[in-house]
Amino acid sequence: MHLSKVAQWVENSVKNAVAPVTGMGDNVDKVDLPKAYAVTDSKHAVGVFPPALQPHLGDEFKSYDGQVGYFNPQGGWAEAKNATLSMLNEARRMGAEVVSNARVTSLVYAEPKYDQTKPKVIGVKTADGRTFLADRVVLAAGCWTSSLLDQLKLSLPRSVLKATAHCVLTLKLNPEVAQKFKGAPVTFNMYSGFYTFEPNADGILKCAIHGTGSLDFDPANYPGTDFPNVATEKQLKHMIAELRSQYPILQLEGPNKNAEIHFTRMCWYSDSVDENFLIDFFPGVDGLLVASGDSGHGFKSGTDELVPDFGLSSHQRRVFSFAHHLEMNDPANPNRTSMDSIRIGEEAPNPESYLESDAIKAKM
User: Fold this and answer.
1) CA dihedral 217, 220, 225, 228 (to 10 degrees)
2) Are residues 50 and 111 in the same domain?
3) Where is this region: Disordered (predicted)?
4) What is the pLDDT of residue 23?
5) Are residues 149 and 35 in the same domain?
């Protein structure tokens, strides 16, 4: 990504971060929270990290010449797995019935009426022969959305939603070094797409690359609930090189070893071309709401608040619509964009300067 584009991204991000939140009602307590700001030099960059970690930062933060960035003290991270489990348990507590092992194979349509202009979906059938009827069917199948729609004979142009696979790496840190990271911010390299989280309570540090991903994997071939371990030597070397450029304190081998590879896993995206969600009723069909297009940021928005009542703003209704996504994929559209043009990611630092390939192989 060109520097001028990154600089504009930083400027817009700071503006968005300091803008007042709207639509929350008049009863919300007005709290003077710390504001986001642009990071312009190495002193600012190092200063956002906990004091115990500052002496151990790499050149990516200490050598700031020619870089641009911003820090948002209101930002952070959440434990997506535990949050999702909590929501699931709350739904059950409120009376929702959760049915497991129910692989949908077809839709159930209402008998056509004389004045009916399009078919109406009233339920689904599963592989074991069960039928579930509903006033409205919400299809929120993540990366499986496109292939499931194909199976249900409601195909979309493949470019509207594209399943991509991304490698996630986690390290288990020794307690002493993990303590130095306590309070560390989420980091995101806008050139490589590499991002990291503060280690959790168990000392597990997670990192990944938000990029164009891989198209070599078909989610239809991974129907289970396990997370496939598909990291290649190249991917591991790439990510560890990125991690070491930020945190050279992390030693994966030798007498000063203080961390080890915990696991790798595949993270699926359902990518839309401009990274907007797709939340709309399927064209030409009544009763079927599609909610997909997470594009790697599905957890952050509280989509549970958007989908049940289709509670979108006028802007969201436009950019989350089928019409918008089909338009963005129209070759004749002069404003058509490419995922590759908005996703970031350049070559990683030379990994040979950090780890020998044999050491990587031993971890796989």
Assistant:
1) -20
2) no
3) 330-350
4) 45
5) no
Domain count, the chain: 2
Question: Is residue 92, in this structure, part of any structural domain at all?
Answer: no
DSSP character at residue 105 = E
Domain extent at residue 33: 1-75
Q: In this structure, what DSSP letter does residue 209 have?
A: E
Long-range contacts of 58-64 (CB under 8 A, 24+ apart): 58/244, 58/245, 58/246, 58/247, 58/248, 59/245, 60/189, 60/245, 60/246, 61/246, 64/39, 64/40
What are the residues facing 278 on neighbouring strands? Answer: 292
User: Does residue 204 sit in the same domain as residue 155?
Assistant: yes
Start-end of H helices in the chain: 3-18, 42-47, 59-62, 80-93, 145-151, 175-180, 233-246, 303-306, 314-319, 322-328, 339-342, 357-363
Averaged over successive runs of 10 residues, the pLDDT of the chain (364 residues) comes to 57 65 48 78 91 94 80 82 89 93 93 86 96 95 89 82 88 97 92 90 93 68 57 81 94 94 87 88 93 80 52 79 86 70 48 37 32
| Same domain flag for 266 and 193 | yes
Q: Which of 45, 75, 105 is the last residue of a domain?
A: 75
Q: Name the 3-class secondary structure at 149.
A: helix
In this structure, is residue 90 part of a structural domain? no
309, amino acid identity: D
* 2-38 b/e (C-beta count within 10 Å ≥ 16 → b): eeeebeebbeebbeebeeeeeeeeeeeeeeeeeebee
Greatest alpha-carbon span in the chain: 79
Do 347 and 315 reside in the same domain of the chain? yes
The candidate with the shortest Cα–Cα distance to 199, out of 210, 189, 184, is 184
Total length of the chain = 364
